[in-house]
Design brief:
Blueprint lengths: L1 H27 L3 H23 L1 E6 L9 E5 L17 E6 L8 H8 E4 L4 H17 L3 E4 L16 H10 L3 E6 L15 E7 L9 H32 L1
C-alpha cells in the first residue's frame, strides 16, 4: 500500500509542478512575487497531497521566532520536502541552492527567481558571489535559507556544521534562526517511498550576531541536535501508533 500511495503522490508531484509552473510562467519570468506565489501554491499542493495520498501530516511550530525582515535561517536537511514546505511558513525566503537545479525544466526557472545558486566546486569565488547575492536579498527583506550540513542527512545524524553557514553568519551580521525537523522519517533523501507519519518543522530561538566561530558553531549544534532528536522521537512514536491502528 505504501508503494502505491508513493507512486500516486509522485504523479501528483510532477503533474502539479507542470500545471502550476506553466500557468504562472508568463508572469513569473518577469516578477519575483508572481514566481513566489506560484511556488507557494505548489508547496501547498504538496502538503495537501502528502496528507491526502500518503497519510503524512505537516505541522509548523515556533513561528514567533521567525524574523519579520532580513535574517539567516539555518535548517536541518533530511529530505527534498525541506526545500518545499518552508515556502509555507517563511515570509520571503531566498534559498542557497545548487546551480545544477537551475537546469531542470520548469522548476529551474522558478529556482532562479527565488534562489541564490552556488557552484560547490567554485571555492572562494563562489563564496564571494553567494555573499553578494545574499546581501542583495537581505537589503530587500529576504530571509536567507541555508542548510548548514550542505546535503541531506539521515534523521539520527548529529549536525555537521559546514563552513558556508559560518561564513554567512560572520559576514551578514544578522541573527541566525535554527530550524529542526524530522522529515526523513516519512520522506527519505534518496528514497521513493513516502511513509505515513507526522512531519514537524520547528523554528528555534535566534542566535544573536557577533559570536566567534567556535561559539556560534557550538550554539547552532546545541540548538539543532536536541530539538531534532526530540522531533524524530515524536515522529517515530506517531508512526508506531499508526502502524498499530
Amino acid at each position: 500500500m505504501t508503494f502505491i500511495r508513493s507512486l500516486l503522490y509522485a504523479v501528483w508531484f510532477y503533474v502539479t509542478m507542470v500545471v502550476i509552473g506553466l500557468v504562472f510562467m508568463p508572469v513569473a519570468l518577469f516578477s519575483r512575487s508572481a514566481a513566489m506565489s506560484a511556488i507557494r501554491l505548489w508547496s501547498g499542493a504538496q502538503r495537501l497531497g502528502l496528507r491526502a495520498i500518503c497519510g503524512i501530516k505537516t505541522e509548523f511550530r515556533g513561528m514567533e521566532h521567525l524574523p519579520k525582515g532580513a535574517g539567516l535561517i539555518a535548517m536541518k536537511h533530511q529530505s527534498t520536502y525541506d526545500t518545499i514546505a518552508p515556502f509555507l511558513f517563511i515570509q520571503n525566503p531566498g534559498y542557497i541552492l545548487k546551480k545544477e537545479l537551475l537546469k531542470l525544466p520548469v522548476f529551474g526557472i522558478y529556482a532562479s527567481r527565488v534562489g541564490i545558486p552556488i557552484d560547490r566546486a567554485g571555492g572562494t569565488k563562489t563564496m564571494k558571489l553567494m555573499l553578494a547575492d545574499a546581501r542583495k536579498g537581505l537589503a530587500s527583506g529576504q530571509q536567507i535559507v541555508i542548510f548548514p550540513e550542505g546535503t541531506r542527512q539521515l534523521p539520527d545524524t548529529p549536525a555537521d556544521i559546514k563552513p558556508g553557514v559560518i561564513f554567512m553568519y560572520n559576514e551578514l551580521a544578522v541573527p541566525c534562526v535554527p530550524v529542526a525537523l524530522n522529515t526523513g522519517l516519512c520522506w527519505q533523501g534518496s528514497g521513493f517511498l513516502r511513509k505515513p507519519g507526522h512531519v514537524v518543522f520547528e523554528v528555534l530561538k535566534p542566535i544573536e550576531p557577533g559570536l566567534k566561530r567556535a561559539e556560534f558553531t557550538q550554539r547552532l549544534k546545541d540548538a539543532l541536535d536536541p530539538a531534532t532528536q526530540r522531533l524524530v522521537a515524536e515522529g517515530r512514536a506517531a508512526q508506531s501508533s499508526t502502524n498499530r491502528s
